[in-house]
Amino acid sequence: MAERVLAGDRRAVARAISWVEDSADGLPALSEALYPNSGRAYTVGLTGSPGVGKSSLAAALVGAARARERTIAVLAIDPTSPFTGGALLGDRLRMQSHATDPGVFIRSMATRGHLGGMALAAPEAIRILDASGKDLIVVETVGVGQSEVEVVTATDTTLVVVSPGWGDAVQVAKAGILEIADVFVVNKADREGADDAVRDLHQMLRMGPKQAWTPPVVRTSTVTGDGIDDLWAAVERHRDHQESAGELARKRRARVFAEVQGMVAERLRRRVANILDGGSGEALAEDLAERRIDPYRAAALLLERMTDDDDTERTAGERDA
Amino acid sequence: MAERVLAGDRRAVARAISWVEDSADGLPALSEALYPNSGRAYTVGLTGSPGVGKSSLAAALVGAARARERTIAVLAIDPTSPFTGGALLGDRLRMQSHATDPGVFIRSMATRGHLGGMALAAPEAIRILDASGKDLIVVETVGVGQSEVEVVTATDTTLVVVSPGWGDAVQVAKAGILEIADVFVVNKADREGADDAVRDLHQMLRMGPKQAWTPPVVRTSTVTGDGIDDLWAAVERHRDHQESAGELARKRRARVFAEVQGMVAERLRRRVANILDGGSGEALAEDLAERRIDPYRAAALLLERMTDDDDTERTAGERDA
Lengths: 321, 321
Description:
Two copies of one chain form a homodimer. Chain A is an alpha/beta fold. Chain A has 13 helices and seven strands. Chain A has helices spanning 2-6, 10-22, 27-34, 54-67, 86-94, 118-131, 146-153, 169-175, 194-207, 228-244, 247-276, 280-289, 295-320, and strands at 42-47, 72-77, 104-109, 136-141, 157-162, 183-186, 217-219. The interface between A and B is large, with 48 and 48 residues.
């Protein structure tokens, strides 16, 4: 499986991402085999309110990448359901023109059984696409929910998309996604109100703290194709900025370290949940409510039981070995 | 110490809350001793943007409680610093008239050393005030930050305060605190724009989902004293509503259970942090960055080390015993 992913086999890549969605048993071994071959791809996050044209923009980035002879993957994050209707189906149709291009891989992804949620699942899927040899990986979200924002900020460059009318600059401020943008995109720039959106974003940026990198505001139209080259150039400039300052390596290092801490926290949380399932949680809640046990002692008891369970697991493991 | 708190000794209560702030060693024993005597007080959370008059409203509630011969404590949550300047000092001056009243206890609180943050510290402080015999406990926040919202929603009735001009209805929507209100308070209702604020809130409530309890919108003025009795009555109605439906006991039970899970998660997080401190975290980050180890194995290693540390701790404990 790992070999086929590394060779860029489309069906193997698709299956590996399904493994991530389902937290399949084979995943840790696959992850271990792929990891040394990851880290070459550049990752771009794409977020913004529904309706601003993120999918069309992703399709435009696919075209821009192929025109530059770069390979590209698009991972569309769907936090709710494995089978979304309109939006993602629409993407796929729009990207049909790339359907037979081996340099392009498009995939939507849900967290069907991945217990760590999208925040832990997405980086794994990105690493699979990375190891499969794609130069650029675009991660697109449906909306601007908290878990989606978490996912797109765990990329090298985060694009925040607005469009006149739909989710303009004020929406960006309300959604709390002003701070996460490395590049702002005012899409549907052929429409009325685009100037206002650009001006509002510049004004909000002036009000914020001075930073080493000021997010540029790029106007695009996926209808006319205007501004797509500017967007590509803005991403490249951000990449150069980060690479020259050593920032990119630092960010990536911090990201994978945080991911491991997230994995540990998730596994511990699951152990606690296992202990609390099966009646003992109910009994503990009852003891707390009846004031037979205080919160400190209840917490200490749970921690003790976790350690006991560890011993049981390990003894079982040793017996098997 | 526990006996003095139970007797309502002001200095002991103040000191016990300082213990909470500092995560003092004596805290678990104190918590255990006080817990059987908690659960009698009714708790009210008070939140809203800075400047809407929360402190004046808390002072008005103190007056209303004393007029009804109820004892009351006000806990002002300060998420940032143990020594805030203007705002909290202002409160204290305004509440001076109650300074010598043994039925009133006012205290601001920060998380100086409490590792679980305000979300874990506040319930402990509330239990101390509860065990000290106060009938009503008002928890007031400085602003509407995430941790502050967490704290005020962990009360029996949550008041969301707005005022015309400062943080009106739109601010409430932006801050995401529309959903947490059991009662809306339009304070400074003598000012222009109060009618608009009331109307906007009613409109937002109509747009939301139908619920068993519809938050009333109460107009108050702490200058004229208008509406304070209405506010008191609204809180009583919400209390009756919850008590008649068995909701209050359910909410409280779920709250303390969630608190225990939070305590366990916090202690586990700290164990992981301890392992990662002292160089081994740096080494692990390096191994990950250099791709000598993959995230799955890194997480497994950390979990193993945690279990080993448990054994060491326990062995040491057994030796001591």
